[in-house]
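Task: sequence in, structure out. Protein: UDP-glucose 6-dehydrogenase.
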Amino acid sequence: MNIAILGLGYVGVTAAACLASQGHYVIGIDPNATKVNAVLEGRSPITEPRIGELIAEAREQGLITANVALGSEVAMCDVAIVCVGTPSAVDGSHNMSYIAEVSRQLAELVKAHPDASLTVAYRSTVRPGTMENLIQPIFDGVLGGDSARIELVYYPEFLRESSAVDDYFSPPKIVIGTKDGDRCAKIDKINEGITAPVFYVRYPESEITKFVDNSFHAVKIAFANEIGRVCTQLGISAAEVHKIFVSDTKLNVSPYYLRPGGAFGGSCLPKDVRALQHIARVSGSSTHLIDSLITSNEAHKSFLFDHATRGLEHGAKVLLLGIAFKNASDDLRESPNIDLARMLITAGYQLSIFDQYVTPQNLIGQNLGALSNSPFIRELLVDQSVVESTHWDLVIDSRGSADKYALTTSRTINISRLA
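Result:
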């Protein structure tokens, strides 16, 4: 099939690379010329394992291209997959301006091409009601009686950064939302060969799925970290308590996200928790646990700082291993490690930062914006030679990877695991 990917962020680039690897012809659309040029040069615009290789192979085979604007080639595609951003607004809701604008542009494009018949699948996280109350009215308003030429689908993704390719081809589940919960032949074709539970539901059930999943992931992380704090304060091994807890797969479900360690961050969990809080407020619901998640997470950041620097003298040399929110990624969005770095600087420590995956000159989009909001990162980043040639009073390891380096240090604290 011919498939357009609208938005070349983490979700869009992963979809483009994986679909092209399956033999589909893919055109990526993004107004950011840096991202587009990277794809055209056979490179990945993001740091994510295996993506670069897949894009390079797809370019060699003529299966992927990119552009900064919608054109006739998109109108003639079988499917357009929308992966634009839905960042947090001031009130905690998702900002739908990019969703609305790309929908309007698609509608105008289809109107200008009478032969076009397009399935538009949205992967961006949107609040319940968006498909019926925002997106469908946009297409109806532009196309009128011709809106039947557009098949609208909500098709959430379940990708984890650093393992996005594996998750694409082996997802925990496939959820497809249509107006009446009916099947979509083109999405079924995209998913041929992928083994996972498949759920065909109406739009609202599919739209709330990511909020439920990500908020529960946040619940698990916050719960595990609160238990970890109590254990650490009482001199109890949080690692042993964790081992006992997750051994119960009958009642405790799964070990994922439940190991006490770092605070949650990144592009999904904080944003979706805030959005679900907003949804609960405007719907008159009471969600006391969900309302406490961000507060608990902020408290955990302060705890990690106190735990790591306990007994450390003012002015000590501190190395922070890892500034991105997750290993093998350059994603700086809402990284708790940036907050930890700020605390260390404010407290008067001589801080240096090492993250082999973060190269300031390669950052684009929201990651570049995160760097602009925290300019000290650029100034404090050091290379591996400095890491291995300096005596550190304290190494704070956010990755559990300190053993890989020839460190000279008085103390190492692994904040990715409270033990």
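The chain has two domains: 2-203, 305-414.
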